[in-house]
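Hi Y.,

Following your request, here is the sequence exactly as I used it, all 343 residues.
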Amino acid sequence: MRGFLILVSAGLVSGGCAHNVSQDARTGPDGKIGGAQPIRLDNGEAVARGIVTYPGGDRVDWKSIELPAGKRGTLQLDLTYKTPRPHLRLAFDVFDEYRAQIRPAVGYLRNTHVAIDHARGTYFVRVYAPRRGDAGTYKLVASFEQDPIAADAGKVEIPDPPMLAAVPPPEQPCDHFDSRNPTCAAACPDDAPTTWKGCTTTCRTPDVNNPVCRQTMACPTPPDRRVNDCMIDPAKHWAACADFKNPDPNNPLCERTYEKPVEAHVISVAVQGGYALVTLDVGSDSSIDASWSGHVLRGESDQLLDGGDLSIVRIDKRRSVAKVRLTSDVITANRRVRLVPPR
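Below is the corresponding structure, written out as tokens. Let me know if you'd prefer a different format.
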């Protein structure tokens, strides 16, 4: 290994001559693995610094690291380097004590890192300039952390397990009513009195007036909206609502969510300001009122016409008036309207 002066003078300034210098023309004994320079671990760490330069004839530095005898652990190697010009680089690889390569070359980043698990014995590190123009100063940091020592199972004291609680006696089933049987406290056998506390949460005989029964009993006849089974599919148990204006309070189909839309036709159009006032051929006799809204349909289809939302402004028994932001020509070409109740 030579000083940084060689690195600069031997080819980095006069690049043409650098190609004529042999890569090991000025290398020292550490240019071969047999002359590797030892770096000794102190408290598990070691640092080595140096220069390698392909143009300067000192391309390779070898280092050796001897791990503590009889110890295994993680060996970490970190290389940082600085080159005299951008785009130059250094690299390093690692060999075991039998001189077999165990880590291929790394070094294409400015900070390179290698970790060897369960390392033991001696390792060799080769720091070198990969290409003809490469050169730089480097810092190699080695650290070793011993693997945890496995405990000797024969010497580990294992405390006795805690004493188990006494196994409770098996519960006595409540097949027949017995006020002295703890299991009967929350049960309602067939021979228990109706007033027994365990029967307050049990439906022995379907009764719509018993809140507990409403959760489990089948829908009765006539249906009752308080019973869960009736409300799963109301249309299965109730007839359609006869009069949405005077709804049957026990018929869920009289709720507005079940009220069907009403089809209407435009019978006349008058323009007023930015609106068109349209007269429809349906009124309160068709169960609609001023709370309904509607939409103009496209031609004879069921598609909603863009911008065709309308609102009712006046309603009579057989006629109603609504306003919409469409021209009279568009409405004349699309006279069908769908009215829907409020949801």
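Helices lie at 4-12, 15-18, 211-216, 228-232, 234-237, 328-333.

Thanks again,
Q.
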